[in-house]
């Protein structure tokens, strides 16, 4: 037999090396607990292991950031809890103040306590953790609120990436906390003039059955008659004329409306008398109520004021204004020129327009001695005239002379003075230069003679004929319902003796022809611009048509301003089919108006064009205001350069327009507040000379044709109903209004019989309703923040479970089975020993062994 020793040796050596390598691998697996050490050992296992490790690292990172975010939500939760507890204290003070038992000193003490709580609200709103302000949105490096409660943060959410493509917010912004919106809340508005039962207030005149009863102030109820609400000048209800109601407002769907209707005030049978409830039902009908569907609820509150509640939650649009009169006119300006009796239901301390030259005095239906001019005289600084007020502060510069006419007061025996044995009563021409209201009153007293008293107080010019007696006897005892013949009319004349519009309309009767509110260097419109669908407030980029709720093409608006130098101008903004533009008076005052197209300054060429009416934004409207307010600082050429050439607008036209805006920018700022109101800030003067009035040219037209084609229109400032509650909130403004009501003793809307901004304070009792909404809103935010915290708690728990599961899968994938590996290690060891033993024996063999 042939023996090849080298071949056998090599074979044995190979087996030995192979088994040694396997033995080493198993030994390494036992030592490390891993199947492989390097990717080349098993690419599939190694790749799967990398995926598992990535998932584990991602989950670990998610746990870390979720724990950080959860800590932030816990800090926010603590702050919100403090805010909620402070609000409980504030409401306790508010309810205490709502009891009408406090002296001025007591109210002041309560108001001071509430002011301190408001400061604590601001302190909580500016809470910072680790140098980051938690309610500033993404602007965490600056206090979000100033001392007046203005918000300087943003509405951006801070998010954490807890897993792939899974961003979770963890902050509460100051915008949603203090300026949020609750779609489950309903808008409630109210008039602010208390309405008394006139029959109980003046029984000697109106109630034939109870003439001797004492006068009582009893608030009107829905079950009372319309005659009880309006009043009358005698005790016979059968001879009363119908009452005409002039109503304007905004419906729940955002549509603007005007309406005129008549209700019978007179009756011969009490059972058939028109009730106040009939008026409320008719108002509801104008808002869209039907027999089958109610969209608003119209009621009387316990102070005789009309309240309207939108029955659809989340809507913010309803608005209301109404006056009534015994005269049917197509233009309500005719009411004061004809001496009609007017009943107002709402009043606001807004400067009104001067649109008439003559007003006629109205005799008080419950006291025939008293004749009052049917408007209030208010200074240009918005102060009600008193006897010491200069007449030049009450009338515009174009008025030079007052023309007083009328008939004589009664004779001493209480009879009407026919003047048959006297000289005809001539006109009184009174030069207002340098004169005061007292001078005018004295001149009227001397001119008419008789036993009259003339006074001007709280802006009202009142003449009392002391010779009017009681109808039943000659004694000077109420009721003063005897015959009366005195009358007075006032006409404003210019320096040439021609009639000129110098008489203001009454602040209670006027609706939207009112000037913005002025406070130092700031002007603010009173109406929040609400989207027609009721979903929130407008901003600078909102289109006007989105608020109006319809096309504004074809509409025209009057813009009256006192520019930054106090120069009075009247412009017009026209929304023509060809485009929107503003007509501005010629600087020379003897030329054709300038036509200023409304461009969008941010649009770039090519394609310069005038903006179409329905595309005009509030930013463009405010740009037009800016140009008008800077009127006297520009020359003729600057305006001519903006007028479109005959061939159409070109880039040079737009450049000239942008230059006008640039020139105005350094003088004042025009912007929109968070609650959708236009605000103008004078940068040049601490007490501005500017003012703005903007209204529909057909605002006071109640003719049949106008009512038939009733169209939606835009309103910026109006003597409208006060808002008790609305889906949108403005936390610190509500708090300020409540504190002011407590400090000044305004227990309900219109409770203070004084002229001023306090007229539009809704009062302590309505403030309770508004504050309850604030409290509900804060509780919702606490729940929202709690849900954030719960989310992160769930994220952490879920991530930890997933992390454990994936670690298990990773162990199964790359981890070795120690027992199995050890068995294999033992087997390999045995085999290796066998191979080595066999090799040893072969090495010991010689040729002798084969012989």
Protein architecture, described:
By secondary structure, the protein is α+β, with helices and mostly antiparallel strands. The protein is 34% helix and 17% strand. It has 18 helices and 31 strands. A 5-stranded antiparallel sheet has the order 27-26-25-24-30, with helices on one face. Strands 8-9-5-31 form a 4-stranded antiparallel sheet. A hairpin with a 2-residue loop joins strand 1 (128-129) and strand 2 (132-133). Helix 2 (43-98) runs antiparallel to helix 17 (763-814). The radius of gyration is 42 Å and the shape is elongated. The N and C termini lie close together (10 Å).
- The gross shape turns out to be elongated
Unreliable runs, pLDDT <50, ≥5 residues?
Answer: none
Assign the structural class, choosing from mainly alpha, mainly beta, alpha/beta, alpha+beta, or little secondary structure: alpha+beta
Placed side by side, the strands forming the largest sheet appear as 27-26-25-24-30
Strand runs, count: 31
Mean pLDDT: 88
Strand content: 15-25%
Biggest sheet overview: 5 strands, antiparallel
Task: Note the gap between the termini.
Answer: 10 Å
Share of residues in helices:
25-40%
- Alpha carbon gyration radius: 42 Å
How many helices?
18
Protein name: Flagellar hook-associated protein FlgL
Keywords: Cell projection, Cilium, Flagellum
What's the layout of helices and strands?
Elements lengths: L4 H28 L10 H56 L5 H22 L2 E2 L2 E2 L25 E5 L2 E4 L4 H5 L9 E3 L7 H4 L1 H4 L19 H5 L12 E8 L5 E8 L12 H11 L9 E5 L5 E5 L8 E7 L7 H5 L4 E3 L9 E3 L1 E3 L1 E2 L6 E3 L28 E7 L20 E4 L5 H12 L3 E6 L2 E6 L21 E7 L9 E2 L12 E3 L2 E3 L19 H5 L7 E7 L5 E9 L2 E6 L9 E4 L20 H12 L6 H5 L10 H15 L2 E5 L5 E5 L8 E6 L7 H5 L13 E4 L5 H14 L18 H52 L3 H27 L7
Antiparallel strand pairs: 1-2, 3-4, 5-9, 5-31, 6-7, 6-10, 8-9, 10-11, 12-21, 13-20, 14-15, 15-19, 16-17, 16-20, 18-19, 22-23, 23-29, 24-25, 24-30, 25-26, 26-27, 28-29
Helix pairs in contact: 1-18, 2-3, 2-17, 3-16, 12-14, 16-17
Keywords: Cell projection, Cilium, Flagellum
Protein name: Flagellar hook-associated protein FlgL
């Amino acid at each position: 037999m042939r023996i090849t020793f080298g071949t056998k040796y090599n074979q044995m050596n190979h087996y030995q090396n192979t088994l040694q390598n396997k033995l080493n691998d198993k030994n390494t697996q036992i030592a490390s607990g891993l199947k492989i050490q390097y990717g080349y050992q098993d690419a599939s296992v190694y790749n799967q292991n990398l995926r598992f490790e990535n998932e584990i690292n991602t989950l670990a990172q998610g746990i870390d950031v979720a724990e950080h975010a959860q800590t932030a939500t816990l800090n926010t939760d603590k702050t919100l809890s403090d805010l909620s507890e402070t609000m409980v204290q504030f409401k306790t003070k508010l309810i205490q103040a709502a009891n009408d038992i406090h002296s001025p000193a007591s109210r002041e003490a309560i108001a001071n306590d509430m002011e301190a709580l408001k400061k604590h609200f601001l302190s909580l709103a500016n809470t910072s953790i680790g140098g980051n302000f938690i309610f500033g949105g993404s602007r965490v490096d600056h206090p979000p609120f100033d001392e007046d409660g203005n918000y300087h943060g943003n509405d951006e959410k801070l998010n954490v990436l807890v897993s792939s493509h899974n961003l979770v917010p963890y902050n509460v912004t100051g915008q949603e906390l203090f300026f949020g919106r609750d779609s489950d809340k309903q808008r409630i508005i109210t008039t602010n003039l208390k309405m008394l039962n006139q029959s109980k207030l003046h029984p000697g005149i109106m109630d034939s059955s109870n003439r001797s009863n004492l006068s009582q102030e009893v608030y009107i109820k829905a079950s009372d008659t319309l005659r009880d609400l309006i009043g009358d000048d005698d005790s016979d209800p059968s001879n009363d004329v119908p009452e005409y109601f002039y109503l304007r407002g905004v419906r729940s769907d955002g549509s603007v409306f005007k309406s005129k209707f008549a209700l019978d005030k007179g009756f011969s049978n009490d059972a058939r008398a028109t009730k106040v409830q009939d008026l409320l039902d008719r108002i509801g009908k104008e808002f869209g109520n039907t027999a089958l569907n109610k969209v608003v609820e119209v009621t009387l509150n316990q102070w005789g004021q009309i309240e309207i509640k939108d029955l659809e939650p989340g809507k913010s649009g309803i608005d209301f204004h109404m006056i009534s009169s015994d005269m049917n006119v197509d233009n309500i300006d005719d009411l004061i020129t004809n001496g009609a009796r007017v009943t107002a239901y709402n009043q606001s301390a807004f400067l009104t327009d001067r649109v008439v030259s003559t007003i006629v005095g109205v005799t008080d239906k419950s006291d025939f001695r008293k004749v009052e001019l049917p408007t209030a005289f208010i200074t240009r600084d918005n102060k009600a005239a008193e006897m010491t007020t200069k007449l030049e502060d009450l009338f515009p510069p174009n008025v030079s002379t007052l023309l007083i006419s009328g008939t004589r007061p009664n004779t001493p025996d209480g009879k009407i003075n026919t003047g048959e044995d006297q000289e005809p009563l001539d006109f009184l021409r009174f030069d207002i230069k340098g004169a005061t209201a007292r001078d005018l009153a004295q001149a009227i007293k001397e001119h008419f003679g008789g036993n009259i008293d003339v006074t001007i107080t709280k802006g009202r010019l009142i003449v009392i004929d002391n010779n009017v007696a009681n109808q039943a006897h000659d004694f000077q005892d109420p009721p003063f319902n005897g015959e009366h013949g005195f009358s007075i009319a006032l006409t404003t004349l210019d320096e040439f003796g021609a009639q000129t519009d110098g008489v203001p309309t009454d602040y209670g009767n006027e609706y939207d022809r009112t000037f913005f509110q002025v406070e130092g260097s700031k002007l603010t419109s009173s109406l929040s611009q609400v989207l027609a669908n009721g979903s929130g407030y407008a901003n600078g980029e909102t289109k006007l048509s989105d608020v109006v709720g319809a096309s504004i093409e074809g509409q025209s608006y009057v813009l009256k301003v006192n520019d930054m130098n106090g120069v009075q101008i009247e412009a017009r903004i026209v929304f023509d089919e060809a485009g929107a533009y503003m007509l501005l008076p010629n600087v020379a005052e003897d030329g054709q108006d300038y036509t200023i197209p409304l461009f969008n300054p941010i649009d770039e060429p090519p394609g310069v064009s005038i903006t179409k009416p329905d595309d005009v934004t509030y930013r463009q409207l405010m740009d037009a205001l800016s140009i008008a307010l800077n009127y006297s600082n520009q020359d003729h050429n600057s305006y001519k350069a903006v007028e479109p050439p005959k061939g159409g607008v070109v880039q040079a036209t737009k450049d000239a327009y942008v230059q006008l805006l640039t020139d105005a920018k350094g003088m004042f700022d025009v912007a929109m507040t968070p609650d959708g109101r236009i605000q103008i800030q004078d940068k040049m003067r601490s007490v501005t000379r500017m003012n703005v009035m903007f209204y529909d040219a057909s605002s006071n037209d109640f003719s049949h044709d106008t009512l038939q084609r009733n169209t939606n229109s835009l309103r910026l400032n109006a003597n409208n109903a006060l808002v008790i509650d609305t889906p949108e909130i403005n936390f610190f403004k509500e708090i300020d209004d409540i504190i002011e009501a407590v400090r000044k003793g305004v227990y309900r809307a219109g409770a203070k019989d004084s002229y001023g901004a306090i007229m539009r304070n809704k009062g302590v009792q309505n403030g309770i309703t508004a504050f309850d909404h604030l409290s509900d809103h804060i509780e919702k935010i606490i729940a929202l923040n709690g849900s954030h915290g719960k989310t992160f708690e769930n994220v952490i728990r879920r991530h930890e479970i997933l992390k454990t599961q994936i670690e298990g899968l990773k162990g199964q994938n790359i981890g070795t089975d120690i027992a199995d590996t050890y068995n294999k290690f033992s087997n390999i060891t045995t085999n290796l020993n066998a191979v080595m033993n066999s090799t040893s024996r072969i090495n010991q063999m010689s040729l002798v062994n084969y012989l």
